Amino acid sequence: MILGIYGAGGNGKLVADLALYENEAESKWDKIIFVDDVVGVEEKYGLEVYTFSEVREKIKPQDIEMVISLGEPCDRELVFERIKEAGYSLGQAISPDAYVTKDVKIGEGVIIFNCSVGSDVILGDNVFVSEGALIGHDITIGPHGVIGARAFVAGHCQLGEQVYIGPCAVLRDRIKIEDTAVVAIGAVVFKDVSGNSIAIGNPARSMKKEEGYRIF
Questions:
Q1: Annotated binding-site positions for substrate
Q2: Catalytically annotated residues
Q3: Under a CB-based contact definition with an 8 Å cutoff, are residues 182 and 215 in contact?
Q4: Residue 82 and residue 26 share a domain
Q5: Which end of the chain has fewer CB within 10 Å, C or N?
Q6: What is the domain extent for residue 120?
Q7: Strand, helix or coil at 62?
Q8: Which residues are annotated as a binding site?
Q9: Greatest alpha-carbon span in the chain
Q10: ω into residue 203 within 30 of 0, thus cis?
Q11: Beta-carbon count within 10 A of 1 CB
């Protein structure tokens, strides 16, 4: 089985390091490659680079699974749908050092770095959990969400689809973060955050995102 890491940028390098480390522990994949739409790049960080068109031409769906390294939630969803529509599957990349309780439900394409995920947590399809994040108990994180490095999500929080929680952000217990909302770096959230909003500061205040807003 081949692992294809979709996105060969800086985040891709981090995911490649994670996958190589996991492979040392488990011998999970025969080969690890990058998949990226930048034409003309054949190798990056010591791994071969294929465009998605080349993957479709040269690699059968049963011979490869993919994970998505992109940090922008809306881009994660677009690529996820592209992969699925082409008949390919998504795998999982999980650090051997991560603390993930046995009852955690993990969706397709989920990436988990060295972090802590407590009991009765649901990680939806294509969720990205960064280094040092602390995810409490009885939490749902919707598809295509990104949890930044050293963010803390307390118990019974509910996160919608395409939610971005910035590095070192803190969510108190029983908070609801609606679809496409962003919690900024270091924000401390005491109240629910409505969809398509940004929560900034300590205590966090919410404001609507401008049209065309992107995190990166």
A1: 71
A2: 137
A3: yes
A4: yes
A5: C
A6: 97-204
A7: helix
A8: 71
A9: 52
A10: yes
A11: 11
